[in-house]
Amino acid sequence: MPFTAGASNTNWNSWIINGAKQNISSIPALISRSLGWETVRLWNIGLDLSAFNNRLNLSAEYFVRNTLNMVGPAPALPNILGIAVPRTNNADLTSKGFELDLSWRDIIGSFSYGIKANLSDDRQKKLTVTLTRPDQSQHTWQVNI
């Protein structure tokens, strides 16, 4: 398996010998050969309304975003490996949400003003996580929405 690039990490070095911190190095993390790009599918619908000679404006949007093959936790490997298990593409996530914008603009004499309100919400749920065990059997956990 390939390794991540990196030399020494002295940020956590606490070894002091003869009054000086010592240079140390550590083993970099493994990278999974199956690590790849996530796929995102987005669907949205929106509506824009204006009234009273464009003084009152309303904008509304609803969206659904599915992220497939997200990087997730890897299956456990024997402790004799000695370093962290590499992350892999094994999770799916869905996000659903909306956004509402309401604004009012007006001019009274030479004075102009505007008021705007925004309301939004976004909920995410992890749909599946697939782990392959050392015996090569796959186990998939799913969340019902």
Provide an overview of this structure.
The chain has 145 residues and is mainly β. It has one domain. It contains no helices and 7 strands. The protein has strands spanning 16-17, 20-21, 39-51, 56-72, 88-108, 111-132, 138-142. A hairpin with a 4-residue loop joins β3 and β4. The chain is elongated, with a radius of gyration of 26 Å.
Task: Provide keyphrases for this structure.
single chain; 145 residues; mainly beta; 5-stranded antiparallel sheet; two-stranded antiparallel ribbon; 7 strands; 0% helix; disordered N terminus
The SS-based structural class is mainly beta
> Strand count, sense and closure of the main sheet?
5 strands, antiparallel
Number of strands: 7
Strand order of the largest sheet: 3-4-5-6-7
Order of helices and strands: EEEEEEE
How many H/I helices?
0
What share of the residues does DSSP label as strand, in percent?
Answer: over 45%
Helical amount: under 10%
Oligomer: single chain
- Rg over CA atoms, rounded to whole Å, is 26 Å
Q: What is the approximate shape?
A: elongated
The end-to-end span amounts to 37 Å
Mean pLDDT, as a whole number?
A: 81
Runs in which pLDDT lies below 50 for 5 or more consecutive residues are: 1-10
Number of domains: 1
